[in-house]
């Protein structure tokens, strides 16, 4: 039996291949559209989902794993490891965090730690990967939790949006703000700041957004005196600007690892078609 097993929610931008490589179990979030509900990352057809999102015929809806699903996942993981570490998206973004904590409390005979990554899904991904990396090396409970805590500090994630109407529909911003953004043709860059979603820049073009990303990443790279970065680049049906983002990152920074990752359908529901983003972890 291994010392620690890492789990996270499928809202994270972790592909099945990455999950398998890093031995991460995914607890499924759910997406409903066109009258049917799917498990994100399991039985959802992403091409069909993006067609639905792009045409704007309606808004999908999302839901977090149930108490029973968390308990089942934790119980299964407990058969493989002494300690279970579940990395959650920021608690303000999903009630999945509180549901996971409730499941852990009800399974009081198991050693379960719930980590609030205090970031969006990209940050959740990076924290889970770093924790899983430590777990795969045979590290114990405190070392894995320490790695997760360090990754939280040295990781940032932001996304630029084609439209703000999906955020407005989900109640993440005021509808008037979305209307103003549309009228001004803004491509806002959103990130987790001060306990919630904040527009940290409001460029008018994707090119301006990319320039902002470069400046922000450089600032944080220098702040942490980095040696390299681990980075993921994701998009919601906007491969062109994801490609340009990858070109920028490779040109500007020493790369330890870079992943191109599909934005989960759960996140895509809230950021909308055309969004793209970068997550970066400054390697000590």
Please describe the structure with a list of short key phrases separated by commas or semicolons.
43% helix, single chain, 6-stranded mixed sheet, 284 residues, 4-stranded parallel sheet, alpha/beta, Hypothetical Protein Tm841, Chain: A,domain 3, Rossmann fold
Secondary-structure map with pairings?
Layout lengths: L1 E8 L6 H6 L2 E4 L2 E4 L2 E4 L6 H10 L5 E3 L3 H12 L2 E8 L7 H11 L4 E6 L4 H16 L4 H14 E6 L4 H5 L5 H9 L5 E5 L2 E6 L4 H18 L4 E8 L3 H14 L2 E8 L2 H7 L4 E8 L1
Parallel strand pairs: 1-2, 1-6, 6-7, 11-12
Antiparallel strand pairs: 3-4, 3-5, 8-9, 8-13, 9-10, 11-13
Helix pairs in contact: 3-4, 5-6, 9-10
Please tell me about this protein's structure.
- Mean pLDDT is 92; it is low at 172-184.
- A six-stranded mixed sheet has the order 10-9-8-13-11-12, sandwiched between helices.
- It is of the alpha/beta class.
- α4 (96-106) links the parallel β6 and β7.
- It contains eleven helices and 13 strands.
- The chain has two domains: 2-153, Rossmann fold (3-Layer(aba) Sandwich); 155-283, 2-Layer Sandwich (Hypothetical Protein Tm841, Chain: A,domain 3), CATH 3.30.1180.
- Helix content is 43%, strand content 27%.
- It is globular, with a radius of gyration of 18 Å.
Model regions low in confidence, pLDDT < 50 over at least 5 residues? 172-184
Record field, number of beta strands: 13
Structural class: alpha/beta
- Second CATH tier, the architecture of the largest domain: 3-Layer(aba) Sandwich
Principal-axis shape: globular
Mean pLDDT: 92
Number of helices: 11
Q: Kindly, what is the distance between the CA atoms of the first and last residues, rounded to a whole number of angstroms?
A: 31 Å
Q: In the residues, how many domains can be counted?
A: 2
CATH names the topology of the largest domain as Rossmann fold
